Amino acid sequence: MSDLAPPPPRLKRRVLPLADTSATETLVAQAERLLHQDIVNGIHPAGARLNIRELAARYDIGATPIREALSKLAANGFVAIVENRGFRVANLSAEDLLDIISARQLIEVAALRRSMRHGDAEWEAGIAGTLRKIEHFAKSLTTAAQGWGDELDIVHKQFHTALLAGAGSPRLINMHQIFYDQTFRYRQTMFTRMPSLEEFVQEHRDLARLTLERNIAAACARLAAHLTHTLRQVYPGVSLPDGTQFS
Fold this sequence. Notes:
Helices cover 62% and strands 4% of the residues. It has 247 residues and is mainly alpha-helical. A 3-stranded antiparallel beta sheet has the order 1-3-2. The protein is globular.
């Protein structure tokens, strides 16, 4: 007879029933997309109160998905939670834009540096292709006064994302896109003077050229300066933390 104690009885694995959450998650995603779009485009202006019941009626989506969507947007800086008063659109200010620009410089310059070190032929093609989209779209406009609308923003965002795509970091790309959209709120709602179309296109040609040449120092410096353009347009006279001041 063996002296070994018998093994303990195996515990049964507890299997919890899966709730059918697919429809709710789809509605949350839809609500988040619609709210995000309208906040970025200024439909819900900065500081505006976001009443859940009114938003549910506007978007024909239930109150629970709307509330969850607002919480997600608050986590990404587009919505502010006011204690005991619900939600409102995050305010716009020079200090906020300066913080966004500083964060973008840290994230995007680091991602660009990694991209130039590790990017492959597909990454290079992505940059060239999105630059051609910018050039093509600019030709379709007669003046810069036609505005920074959704179509131009789509190709512009694609270009900046393509610059960073070689870094191989989905989290860096995600952070870049969040801060890009936060910057767009300022461009969309507060720009009073657009740069000329030729200046706009040439700036992106130069960024693409330096990046594809793998000129790390020059490309990173150019991108860091490029990211300050919105700040210079919206809040002239504001200084960066390094002391750089815009007139």
